[in-house]
Amino acid sequence: MITQVIKADKESIIKAAQIIVAWDIVAFPTETIYGLFADATNPEAIKKIFIAKNRPSDNPLIVHFAYASDISHYAIIENPIQQLLIDKLMPGPLTLVLPKKDIIPSITTGNLETLCVRIPDHVLSKQLIRHSGVPLAWPSANLSWRPSPISSDMVMKDMDGRITLIIDWWKTLYGIESTVVKVSQQDNRYIVSILRPWFITKEDIENLVWDEAIVLYNDKGINESPWTRYRHYSPQSHIKIIDTIDDIDFKNIYSPGKKYALIATTEFLSDNISFIDTLHQDYSLITMPLGSLHNMIECIQSLYQLYSTCDELSIDTIFIQSLPEEGVWYALMNRIRKSVS
Ligand code: TXA
Ligand code: MG
After folding, report:
1. What 3-state class would DSSP assign to 320?
2. Protein residue with its CA nearest to atom 22 in ligand 1
3. Which residues have a Cβ under 8 Å from the Cβ of 107 and sit 6 or more positions away?
């Protein structure tokens, strides 16, 4: 199969929509990352997504809509907190788990009775959904267990020969996936569980729901989302999280012929510049700036790109700086920890 890359414009969006109607799949950007999309109501098309990504069949797909009013045709909005999250945070990088309606085939939800819904905040994504005329299942356009793509080049690396078309549109705005949340009810209280943390933080949701609901991270241990079950976002290298530069203990771990890289914020690199120079001279340590501690978006966008560069350079071990685990940084550290485990 030949994989073609074309620029996003009016014609290519219409071409992509025609491919959807013909039960096939295309790679296309949203504001978060590039995804592979297909008609969420068509089991034959959905099967092609699972095959192209090598995705386990019990790992469900997020379904994307153009308008909030479309959601209730495919899923059940059960309570005012779910409605509030839809009204205030969609369109945007928020995904909400709801009970599904029968119109969504079980292959789309990995046999779960729930459906993840999202409205992308990206002018092209919205046009595509409108032209297709159906809700679109849209997982990240990477092979399972590989970093999520933020450029069409990254998509090509994983999907060359596996799909027919990639639509290229500059870089994605955020470069990391949506926050996934679920609302449940316990003893007359609503609980918003954050199954996959991201840019929309626990604090953002707390400020929205006030005392109407409790907001919890539920992204570790508890098997609420199939997402927690699988390894994600891993480059081929071994990854070691370091708190200080002294944690790079080359005297004990260095092996000649192997390649080592350090991914850290610009502040960390400049604070330790002379020691890093020595490590570069003695052990050929390669340094890769993640971005500034004052620019979280820059750091998020760099992470998968740097992982991809490490794969290209056949790095054996990546040392990566530990980041503050609060607010939006929590999500970045969550991704880094996932790539280690
Ligand atoms: O930003 C995003 O969310 C991107 C763009 C393309 O929209 N999509 C994305 O999809 O990241 P994907 O398939 O790579 O990740 C969706 C995650 C999966 O790991 C899955 O386990 C979880 O959401 N998920 C899907 N349906 C679920 C459900 N019904 N209950 C709990 N978790 C679910
Ligand atoms: Mg994914």
Report:
1. strand
2. 227
3. 43, 46, 47, 50, 57
Q: What is the Cα 283 distance to its own chain's centre?
A: 34
- Composition of the chain by helix, strand, coil, percent to 5: 35, 25, 40
Residues composing the chain: 341
284 is written with which tokens? 């050929």
Name which of 36, 1, 25 is nearest 143 in CA terms: 36
Tens-of-pLDDT digits for all 341 residues of the chain? 999 999 999 999 999 999 999 999 999 999 999 999 999 999 999 999 999 999 999 999 999 999 999 999 999 999 999 999 999 999 999 999 999 999 999 999 999 999 999 999 998 999 999 999 999 999 999 999 888 898 999 899 999 999 999 999 977 888 888 999 999 998 889 999 999 888 899 999 999 999 999 999 886 644 556 656 665 667 889 999 999 999 999 998 999 999 999 999 999 999 999 999 999 999 999 999 999 999 988 898 788 889 889 999 999 999 999 998 887 788 888 888 888 86
- How distant is the alpha carbon of residue 13 from its chain centre? 23
Q: List ligand 1's pocket residues with C-beta within 6 A.
A: 30, 32-33, 35, 59-62, 95, 97, 109, 112, 114-116, 118, 138-140, 177-178, 180, 195, 225-227
C-alpha 168 – ligand 2 centre gap (Å)? 19
